Amino acid sequence: MIESICDSFDSRCTGCEACMRACPRSCIEMVPDKEGFAYPSIDNFLCISCEACVRACPNNMDVRYEDSACAWAFQEQGDFALRSSSGGAFHALGLDVLARGGVAYGFAFNGCDLVMRRADKAADLDKLRGSKYVQGSIGDSFDQIERDAVLGLPIVVCGTACQIAGIRSSLSALRDKVLLIDLVCHGVPSPAMFERHVRYLEKRFEDDLIEYSFRDKKTTHWLMSKHFRYRFARRDDVEGNWKADAYYNAYLKALTMRECCYRCPYSTVARCSDLTLCDFWGVDRASRSIDQRLGVSAFIAHTDRGRAAAERLEAYGVMHKIEVDDILKGNPNLERPTNRPAARDEVYADISRTGYEAWAVRQVTLKDRIFAFVVDSVPLCAVESLQKLRDRKRARSERVERR
């Protein structure tokens, strides 16, 4: 009988599902814990103690980091960047693989559930764009990716670093046939919490929620794109600053992450992927020729495969070579995990005790509402000037601290 798939299981398991996929007897299923995070559960009646799950778990392997070779800033052409969370880099990589007769894998919502999907045409690829701040499930895509790799199709797979580590482990000898892309990630809240939030919004606005956008740029600037939009079946859209939404508010205050996220071994510049994608918050320091309003991506190539894929993107938008250090200044999770606040101890228990609605009302304070109102009132023409003032103030503070 297998006691635990990895050491310190409760605080290190990422829920990547590689163990479930590796089991030859299908005796592992992912079961939500009391907070709603999925963990592998072994049916000991069926288990033959072969330890395939133990061998597949990325936590039991030395993390195979790839070097950080090259970096670029990128903005997809046309209105594609505006429809993406940052600059449209993943969408462009997907278009490139489709043009070569291949397939792209990324995450899309199925109701309240975030699941990995396969895209073999542009319409399906469009559903994979945009940030989704909730943990997703790879599920059957493990097998689909392997089948496509055996067929020799060009393949792009995008997910968080821990998901990419699980897929990398699963692919084994087929690893070199797949372009693996990871996203700079702050951490993930539980799927159960997101579902409760959706139900809360539907009750509050008396309508069915058909789309929840975390990084909407239709009416705001990319530099202020921590801006939600709810699309309902019948009523008008509702939008606003992240501090006005309880779920988003708690997420960006790092109150609701999976425990492993606070000790993430992948929060380093060297990664286990071919390419790493993120927002390029330092664009004003590196390039004046990109329209910041639309959004700007940065990506780091770690392998020759990643470098070749990146260089093909010149056909899909504006691209500039940059230094990795330019990216680090606005992406702290490339150097360290998200800090675990003391309030994380109680947030899920508090929701269970008082109910989600009562918790959501308390989570968005008067100070949060005032902040959201002020930020939403800033005209687009003033955003970049205010950002420069904030950057100068931050730089002065850093110089004072160094003294």
TrEMBL record:
SUPFAM superfamilies: 4Fe-4S ferredoxins. Residues 1-33, 38-68 form the 4Fe-4S ferredoxin-type domain. Keywords: Iron, Iron-sulfur, Metal-binding. It comes from the Bacteria. Signal peptide: none annotated. PROSITE patterns: 4FE4S_FER_1, 4FE4S_FER_2. GO terms for molecular function: iron-sulfur cluster binding; metal ion binding. Pfam families: Fer4_7 (PF12838), FrhB_FdhB_C (PF04432). Transmembrane segments: none annotated. PANTHER family: POLYFERREDOXIN PROTEIN FWDF, PTHR43193. This is Coenzyme F420 hydrogenase/dehydrogenase, beta subunit C-terminal domain.
